Amino acid sequence: MKPALVIVGAGPRGTGLIERIAANAAELYGGSDLDIHLVDPHPPGGGRIWRDAQSPLLWMNSHAEDVTMFTDDTVDMAGPVREGPTLHQWAGLAGSTFADRRLQGAYLRWVHDDAVAALPPGVTVHHHPTRALRVGGPREGRQQVWLEGRPRPLPADLVVLALGHLDAEHEPQQAELTAYARTHGLVHLPPDFTADSDLSALKAGEPVLVRGFGLAFVDLMVLLTEGRGGRYAQDAYLPSGQEPVLYVGSRRGVPYHSKIGYDLTGERPPLPRFLGPAETEALLARPGGFDFRQDVWPLVEKELGYAHYHRLFTAHPERTALDWADFEERYAHAGPGERAALVAAAVPDPADRLDLAALDRPLTGEHHATPEEFQQALRDRVEAGLRRRHDPRHSPDLAVFLGLLSVYGQLVRLGDVGAWWHGFFSSLASGPPGPRLRQMLALSRAGVLKFVGADMTVTAEDGVFRASSPTVPGHTVEARALVEARLPEPTVRRARDALLRDLHADGAAETPDGLLRVDRADSRILDGAGRPHPRRFALGPFTDGRTPGAFTRPRTGGPAFRQNDATARAALTFLRALAPHANAA
C-alpha cells in the first residue's frame, strides 16, 4: 500500500507545503510512490481568500514586487532554495502595482501547478473539492480523514492541517448584539470575511456604525462605494446615491498606516541585533516561562529603536548630534530611561525620534469640541501620514518596517504572545495601499465616511445602536445598522470548522488565547501534556506558530517558509520509512 499524506487546505499554505515537498523530495524521498490528497472545497492555489469568485475591486495590500511564494537564501531552513518569480515578475506588472486578489489567485494556481510538476515520478496529487469533517485514528497508526459527502474516510499516514483563516461562532457579546438586532428590526453584521458578507441590508443614505479601522474596513469601504457605482475623479469622490453613510471608529481611532511608497537605498539595518535566536532561546529556557510585556516587549522596543536610529544616523547624519559609532555603543548598554536621555541629546528634532507608544495610540489625550472639527483633524493626520510614508527623508520608517519583520520572525519561535502584538504589527507593517487612504479622504470630504474616534464604544438601547468616543466628548451617533469590520478570532473552541473542534475534544492543546498549540520544531500538534502527535501537523493563523502571512516579501527570512520546510522534511522522513522500498530493505 502506497504511503498517503492528506493536506487539509489547498490555499497558499497548502501550496507552500507542496512546494517544499517538491524541493526536498530528491534528498529525502527519492522516486518512491506517494499519494498526496488535497482537501478543500475551493480550487488549489488560491483557496478561499484568493478565489476568482470575488469583486475585482478588491486589492492585495502589498506591492506586487513584495509578494513571493519562493524561498531564497535568507530563509533559515534545512532544505534547498528553489527559486521562482515574485508576483510582479510572473505577471509582468510594475513592481509598485497593487494587484487585485483574483490576479494573486492566478499566481497561486500557477505556483501550485509548478510545484506539482516538480514532484518526483510516483508522487501523485489528488484534489478532493469538499470539506474535511474529522480526523480519527490511533497515535501510532494510520489516520482516517472523513470528508463531507463521502461514506468512507481517506486513509492517511500523516495529516497536515493548512486551514487558513477560519469562520467562528460568535463570542457572547456578538451573539447578544445579533439577538438585539433581530428583536428590534436592526442590522448587525458580526466579524466575518468582508468579501463573503451579504451587505445588501445596508441601505442607501442610512447611517451605519462600523467598528474596526483595519483591512476588513477597507474592503467594506470599497464594496459599499465603488461597488455600488460610485467613482473617483482625481481627488474627489462622485457618489452614485446608493451608498450608506459609514461612521467608523476603533481602539486607535485611526486607519492603519499605508504601505511605504519608496525603496530602501544604502545600508540595511544589521538585524537581528537585540532580539535574535540567542535571546529567543533564553526566553524559552526560563523555568517559569516569560511575560510578553515585562520580558519580551523591552527587547522588541530596543530592536525597533536600533533599526530606526541606524537608518537615521547612516542615511540622514545631518539630523543627528553624535557620531553613529558613539551612539551605537551607548545605545547598546543603556536601559530604557538612559536610552530616552541619549536619544534626546543625539536627535535634536522630536519628529526624528521613534515613539512606539504614540504610534500605538495616536489619539491619546486628543479631544475635539465638535465632530466637524475632528473630521478635519483626522483628515489632516491621514494626509500627513501619507506624505511621510512616501517621502524618503523619513526612511527610518522603512527601517522600522524591516525591524518589525525581523522581530516577528523571532516571536514566531516563542509561540502565542497574545493578540496585542499582532494588532500593533498589522497597524504599522500590514496596512492598506496609499491609494486606499486617498480614497478614504475623498469619501470623508464627500460626507460618505465619517470618523467617530478612539476607544469607540457601542451600546444597544432604545431600539437602536449608539456609538461614542472620548475623542469627541458628549457626541453620540445613532444607527440602525452595525458592522464589525474585523476577522473572527481564530480560537479553537469557537471555530465553526468541525474538524478542528473535534481535534480539540480529542485532546489537542490550546493556548490561553485559544490557538492550537504546535511543536516549534516541525509544527506537530501538541496535546495537553506537551507531547507532539506523531502523525498530525498544523500550519497557519489558527496555531500558536502563526506568521505574518503564507507568502512574504523577498529576502526577509520568511518564517512561514521556514515552517513549511521543516514540516515537509519531517513528513518526508516519516513517510520514507513506510515506502515499499524502505520496507523491502
UniProtKB/TrEMBL annotation:
Residues 6-165 form the FAD-dependent urate hydroxylase HpyO/Asp monooxygenase CreE-like FAD/NAD(P)-binding domain. It comes from the Bacteria. InterPro entries: FAD/NAD-bd_sf, HpyO/CreE_NAD-binding, L-asp_N-monooxygenase_NS-form. Residues 529-559 are annotated as: Disordered. This is FAD/NAD(P)-binding protein. It comes from Streptomyces similanensis.
